[in-house]
Amino acid sequence: MNKNRTYRNLVKKNDLVSFNVVVKETDLFIHAWEILADKTTELVLKYRGYVESYINRYPEFEKTLKPWQINGPAPSIVRDMVNAGNKAGVGPMAAVAGAIAEYVGLDLLSSSDEVVVENGGDIFLKTNEPVKIGIFAGKSPLSLRIGFQIDSIKKPAAVCTSSGSVGHSLSLGNSDAVCVLSESCPLADAAATSIGNHIKSKADIPNAIDVGKNIEGIDAVAIIMGDEIGLWGNLELMPVNSRVVSA
Q1: Is 9's pLDDT higher than 60?
Q2: CA-CA-CA-CA torsion for 90, 166, 124, 152, nearest 10 degrees?
Q3: How far lies 95's CA from each of 35, 48, 65, 162, 203, in Å?
Q4: Selected residue with higher pLDDT from 163 and 241
Q5: Distance (Å, rounded) from C-alpha 149 to C-alpha 181?
Q6: Where are the domains of the chain?
């Protein structure tokens, strides 16, 4: 989410090892049972390649801010991005970071029973115990001071964050953080963008929460703007310390 990735200094998960993989714009920070940098690089190249090839065929796919319709064959990662964007009412590229995090993470599970993949504030995780997520919200006084617990023991989970005040991702709103929980990382990514687009001031938080409620497949939403926070869904806020995964 931010250029210096300073919030990654707070990312810890038990005794898992951590490593970083960068391929073009994709910058992953990963926790697993062992360092799997080479395999991760291959996976990133594979899935980026699918998206890049589709963009070469349909250049507007990369630029549109509106839902996309697929005509003809498309790789599964592109289809997931499109489906996520359509559910959230945004363009498919709003889901690309979450999609890459999820596809890479699912493949890494064949080599590590626990995996946490963070891609610019979008997190895919499958762990053997609950993980506390701290919300990174830029200059907000609430940033990295509050969080919630994610249980991905039985099945993978995703938490994605969009911001109108932090980072380089496109947002039409002014929120410090919109954090979305879902079983789908592409959907959580697209939904965070969609919800964030509706926030110009603190008064917009209730309406933005309603937007999130109406996106099928979203489990919870947390919105931070300045010193105010809006919540919906099955999550409970808690104070955080240095042993958190940061979104």
Answers
A1: no
A2: -110
A3: 26, 13, 11, 11, 27
A4: 163
A5: 11
A6: 6-246
What tokens appear for 63 in the block?
């630029």
Q: What is the 3-state secondary structure (H, E, C) of 157-208?
A: EEEEEECCCCCCCCCCCCCCEEEEEECCHHHHHHHHHHHHCCCCCHHHHHHH
Q: For residue 139, what pLDDT is reported? A: 81
Closest listed residue to residue 43, CA positions, set 21, 25, 61: 21
Structural contact between residues 187 and 95, judged by C-beta atoms closer than 8 angstroms: yes
Distance CA 40, CA 36 (A): 6
For residue 169, pLDDT beyond 60: no
At the topology level, CATH places domain 6-246 in: T-fold (3.10.520)
Predicted confidence (pLDDT) at residue 57 exceeds the cutoff of 70: yes
| Phi, psi angle pair for 180, to nearest 5° | -125, 135
End-to-end CA distance of the chain: 9
Is residue 184 within 8 A of residue 102, CB to CB? The reply is: yes
- Please state, in angstroms and rounded to a whole number, the distance separating the CA atoms of residues 231 and 73: 39
